[in-house]
Amino acid sequence: MTIFIFDNTFEGLLTSVFEAYSRRTFPDALLPEGEPLPLFHDEAFMVITEEKKAKRVWRGLQKKLSSGALSCLAQCWLAEEAETPILLFRYMRKAIDAPRSIETNFADPDVLEFSRMWKRVDWERLRMLQFIRFQKAADGTFFAAVEPEKNALPLAIDHFKDRFADQPWLIYDIKRAYGFYYDLKEVRQVTFEEGSREGHLVTGMLDESLMDKDEKLFQQLWKTYFKAICIKERINPRKHKQDMPVRYWKHLTEKQ
Predict the structure, then answer these.
(1) pLDDT-derived band of residue 195, with 50, 70 and 90 as boundaries?
(2) Which residues pair with 144 in a beta bridge?
(3) Residue 169: φ, ψ to 5°
(4) Which residues form the DUF4130 domain (predicted)?
(5) Is residue 136 within a helix (H) or strand (E), and if so which, with residue range?
(6) pLDDT, tens digit, for every residue of 153-191?
(7) Nearest 5 degrees, angle CA 247-CA 249-CA 253?
(8) Rounded to 5 degrees, what angle do the CA atoms 191, 196, 197 make?
């Protein structure tokens, strides 16, 4: 078994593809730095990420894949699944080696799983558009917390920039400890010192001392509206949980 060890970045993955062709040695597994190695393996090669090599591989893929497939490739990296690195490696290798496009060759198990992985990431993006709930802070900033299964927050940011262009907001991924802040001019990624990640950065809910004076009232109005439109005779808990998965309830105003 041949193993490549890389820095667990997309650029590192592309560099791994470059090194594999350069060495004419293709890995059976791609492991992030710090991961324990399998008990039995023949060779472990440490990949040093280089932007120049990563760009060469990306330019090569641009000749083999459509812009849509390239976008899906980048989005699949956000799946953060155990098999993500090696699956994307195999997909890129097949795309480079094939005489024609592999994008619709769903008879190939890697192409099929690539498509399914992309759908899982995109589904998480759509869920965030549905279930993000903002709370207005005393300084006028609208705050929302998320904990998506996939690292799909970057894929949803353009929607919120267009939809809420007239108000400052912060959407924060509690699970991954980063977020995006919009100041009415531009969106930028933000992180917070570990010691400062308290209160709403942990629970996802603003303390009353941080809320706008009318926020509590609006939350109560939303809960009342949500309850009013519910038709008791048509309550279907199973269908409700399918449409609004329980894992999102923690940050939904109407479920508090």
Answers:
(1) low
(2) 171
(3) -150, 160
(4) 86-254
(5) strand 135-136
(6) 999 999 999 999 999 999 999 999 999 999 999 999 999
(7) 155
(8) 70
